[in-house]
Amino acid sequence: MTVTKEAAAPAGTARQDTGPPDPEQGWRVSSPLVLTMLLLVVLTLQGPVRQALSAPVMQSWTTVFVAVVVQALPFLVLGVLLSAVLAVCVPPSFFARALPRRPALAVPVAGVAGAVLPGCECASVPVAGAMVRRGVAPAAALTFLLSAPAINPVVLTATAVAFPDEPRMVVARFAAGLLVACVMGWLWQRLGRPDLLRPKAHPSAEGQGRGAAFWGSVRHDVMHAGGFLVVGAMAAATLKSFVPEDVLRLASGNPVVSVLALAVLAVVLSICSEADAFVAASLSQFSLTARLVFLVVGPMIDLKLFALQAGAFGRAFAVRFAPATFAVAVVLGSATGAVLL
């Protein structure tokens, strides 16, 4: 005798009608599903795929793509690990105690602190928001937000490895990044409107152990930064392999066009700062100054950073701060390149 669920229910209990299935609980597009479908397509079409990859242009594309990813990946992982240590072990209240109370002096100190304490773009935004909520002068917090991902030790080391024959690039990147961060901090102190800067509550790791918070931060940053690294490597390989040399030569031959082109490219690609030097090194058609602007703009304003800043401080802040940062980074990056490169 089979006992059904209805018969097994206690007496007097009304049967609940579940109604029609919730459409939101149906199929959902997720990363594992997309990866599985992609692998199935590749296995099904492995003959045409193998034939396409055997073409010389695709072999060149694959070589550049793998070279950029393999060179950049160790620095990306190291930067993510150090960023997680910073997020877990250094409380935001530390900055409130360490920075001078006068905003004009706190700005350069915060810029230097960003150079000493490594952190990627994804980590610097919530840290800067926490600094503002803890009473740090907004000008100093925004200076740290810009300098930490741009000139920290991991980024400078990666730049030295990516440009082994151009040690001046490391000096120029440090000088331009620190200068842009401080100028933006002073500009905010002078012209910024306090009502625009509204840091929102950020989910904390309270209730978690340090180990859980550390690995949670690592997983988050690796998933985000790794994806942007792949996109950046694909774009660099495509430029090297598919874009005609005449087009690149035309863009790189004009100093103004080359600087603006790589500045816009840095915004669109949104590459993690620990890996962008290897992408810049692969764009050998462009001048060192144009590639320096690419390295200065990218860690300070790109598409993902704009979204992070809008989420952390409000859209009204982001739509004003991001264009100003872009303009200052292009001008000061170009000026630094003209002097040091």
UniProtKB/TrEMBL annotation:
Its topology with respect to the membrane?
Answer: Multi-pass membrane protein
Where does it primarily localize?
Answer: membrane
Cell location: Cell membrane
Q: Where is this region: Disordered?
A: 1-26
Q: Which Pfam families match?
A: ArsP_1
Which sequence ranges are marked TM in the entry? 29-49, 61-85, 105-127, 139-163, 169-188, 222-243, 255-272, 279-301, 321-340
Q: Which InterPro entries match?
A: DUF318 (IPR005524), UPF0718 (IPR052923)
Question: What GO cellular component is one of the record's annotations?
Answer: plasma membrane
UniProt keyword Metal-binding, yes or no: no
Q: Which domain of life is it from?
A: Bacteria
Signal peptide span: none
Q: Which UniProt keywords apply?
A: Cell membrane, Membrane, Transmembrane, Transmembrane helix
**Which PANTHER family does the UniProt entry name for this protein?**
UPF0718 PROTEIN YCGR
- What's this protein's family per the entry? Belongs to the UPF0718 family.
**Protein name as annotated:** Permease
